[in-house]
Amino acid sequence: MSNVATKMIPFARPSVTDAEKQAVMRVLDSPILTHGPECKGFEEDFAAFIGEGTHALAVSSCMAALHLSYLHFRIGEGDEVIVPAQTHTATAHAVEWVGAKPVFVDCDPRTGNMTPEAIRAAVTSKTKAIGLVHYIGIPCDMPAIMQIAAEHGLKVIEDCALAVGARIDRTHVGMWGDAGCFSFYPVKHMTSGEGGMFITRHEDVAASVRYLRAFGVDRTHQERKVPGMYDVPRLGLNYRMSELQAALGRVQVARLPEFLKARAKNFSLLNKCLSGFEGIAVVDTTQAQLENSYYCLVMILGGPFKNKRDASIDFLKQNGVGTSIYYPQPVPRMSYYARKYGYAAERYAGAEAISDEGIALPVGPHLSDDDLNYLIEILNRWREEFAG
Ligand SMILES: *Cc1c(COP(=O)(O)O)cnc(C)c1O
To answer: What is the layout of strands, in order, in the sheet containing 358-361?
Structure first.
């Protein structure tokens, strides 16, 4: 088959317009390149998007926000944190960096999320926190999880890296637990180049993390009576965001409703096409009050498509359709974790189904109507060739 694709649809592509470019240039023409008005404005705009009562702190990445969460709650040596096996490695790395032990829990392959029952079964006398993830924008069952946390006195850290826009009964994810961590890495829902946001509904947590984020110094530039004078009452890090990144992020957060609308529409079109495919299961929310933010469409190949994952990815690529895998391996199977804690495959059947039989399709705002029609045409051709 000599197949020269006339189109190339990437899995994801950041959407940067003149407005973003001008915002960054304005910062470069100003004397303040870090901890200035853009960061403050970005935090306010992001908090307004999330909803009332949100305290938001701009940080250098989602991983930084996660690390700050565990540092703030003084989780460390001898403690256990329940994390999903099906996630980005950052979710578990943050726990490792504070010296605590990540206890990996499998996901329900229908939603990609840990169920409340599975979390409950993993609680021990050493458990201090639940480090959950809203998989590809599908919210976890937070009311039930918060109930478990309350019963056992656990902190809840929400990894919302792929879940900006996801809500449950109108309350945004990240505002259910004690901390929410967002990512603005280029191919997420919105970008600041690199960057992240730490959010919390607790004022005291925000006040403390604000200092942890900047070396642990006790006053900001604005609060210094004598320029350059400050004290350091405790240990901290430099996880700040620059003004350049914040200016870019502010334009993107204003465009977020438009991005989310496009994602929902694109997901729905692809989902409708795939619903006629025997053996294909689409990972989605199973409860109406859970509002998905549609990062991508993950399909799990079964029936006639079983064991044809890699060949399918190749077919789609040859025909100009970019795909990805979210995530490529259950984290406990990654060699660092497997070496340290061992890997018992039978405990992670859900995560393995997604990692080993899943394909992530694009649904981002970079897809034109033409792209979508083309994508659907290629999916139908794929079905004919692989399941015919
Ligand atoms: C991408 C991602 C991260 C890492 O985000 P960074 O901003 O690159 O640190 C963390 N958790 C999840 C679930 C992710 O998808």
So the answer is: 280-282, 297-301, 358-361
pLDDT at 5: 66
Q: Measured in angstroms, how far is the CA atom of residue 277 from the centroid of ligand 1?
A: 31
pLDDT given for residue 28 in this prediction: 98
Alpha helices of the chain — where are they, by DSSP H?
Answer: 18-28, 37-50, 62-72, 89-97, 116-122, 142-152, 203-212, 243-274, 309-318, 335-341, 349-357, 369-387
Rounded average pLDDT per 10-residue block, the chain, 388 residues: 73 97 98 94 98 98 98 98 98 98 98 98 98 98 98 98 97 98 98 98 97 89 83 94 98 98 97 96 89 96 97 98 98 98 98 98 97 98 93
Instruction: For ligand 1, say whether the CB of 374 is within 6 Å of any of its atoms.
Output: no
Kindly give the distance from the C-alpha atom of residue 380 to the centroid of ligand 1, in angstroms, as a whole number. 32
Query: What pLDDT does 4 receive?
Result: 59
Q: Which of 91, 134, 192 is the best mutation target for the ligand 1 pocket, counting ligand atoms within 8 Å of the beta carbon and taking the most?
A: 91
Measured CA to CA, the distance from residue 179 to residue 382 in angstroms comes to 42
Residue 388 pLDDT = 74
How distant, in Å, are the alpha carbons of 76, 163, 281 from that of 71?
Answer: 8, 23, 39
Tell me, in angstroms, the distance from the centre of ligand 1 to residue 36's CA: 25
Q: Alpha-carbon distance 383 to 388, whole Å? A: 7
- Gap between the Cα atoms of 134 and 126, Å rounded: 24
Atom of ligand 1 nearest to the CA of 194: 7
Check if 107 has its Cβ closer than 6 Å to any atom of ligand 1.
no
* Sheet strands (E) in 150-233: 155-159, 167-168, 171-172, 179-183, 196-200
183 lines ligand 1 (CB under 6 A): yes
Bridge-based pairing state of the strands 179-183 and 155-159: parallel
Nearest to 249 by CA among 173, 196, 292, 328: 196
162 lines ligand 1 (CB under 6 A): yes
Separation in Å, CA 182 to CA 65, 90, 234, 364, 386: 8, 12, 25, 18, 38
The predicted pLDDT at position 35 comes to 82
Residue closest by Cα to atom 1 of ligand 1: 161
CA nearest neighbour of 277 among 248, 236, 305: 305
Residue for token pair 């990805």? 324
